[in-house]
Amino acid sequence: MKTKTVIMDEKAIQRATTRISHEIIENNKGINDVILIGIKTRGIPFAQRIAKKIKSIEGQEVQVLTLDITLYRDDLSEIDDKPVVAVGKFDFDITDKVVVLVDDVLYTGRTVRAALDAIVDNGRPNKVQLAVLIDRGHRELPIRPDYIGKNVPTSKKEIVSVKFVETDEIDTVIINEI
């Protein structure tokens, strides 16, 4: 793979995180009953960053949960003939809460669909919102984010790669060509 361009650096990611945090607070008239759920892998550090920023703004903690959607993927048979999956339950009741589902990149919408299935299996939230750092288009399902760090029109021959210090030792978003 060849790096085509850097579309966000550390400062741009920080600005997007700050903006999304303010939008979550504003759209929900505060953070009462708001829970952030980060989709494994890079949705988790992004959700933690949003929670940290919200705490600095509101002076109040926001619960951050982790979601592994492996069990709910619609392409498990493509990964392995007999995939081994674990059923995950939250250690926090999400019933009647405002759940903000957090991921790094929104592409076809299939990951979000799987996450919605997992959320419903864990409780019945009052509302589910979606926050993504990058929306690259090419949706296959009718899924639309509520909070977007950056819209990045891409071709299907490109890969958007988000890297966070927590997982990759650097903060950057790049487009690679296949």
Large-scale geometry: globular
CATH class: Alpha Beta
Question: Largest sheet, if any?
Answer: 5 strands, parallel
- What is Rg? 16 Å
User: Low-confidence spans: pLDDT under 50, at least 5 residues?
Assistant: 82-87
Alpha-beta classification: alpha/beta
Topology pattern, helix = H, strand = E: EHEHEHEHEEEHE
Count up the helices: 5
**Number of DSSP strand runs:** 8
Q: Provide mean pLDDT, rounded.
A: 92
CATH topology: Rossmann fold
Strand content: 25-35%
Description of the molecule:
Strand 2, helix 2 and strand 3 form a beta-alpha-beta unit. Helix 1 packs across helix 2. The strands form 2 sheets. This protein has a 5-stranded parallel beta sheet, sandwiched between helices. With 178 residues, it is of the alpha/beta class.
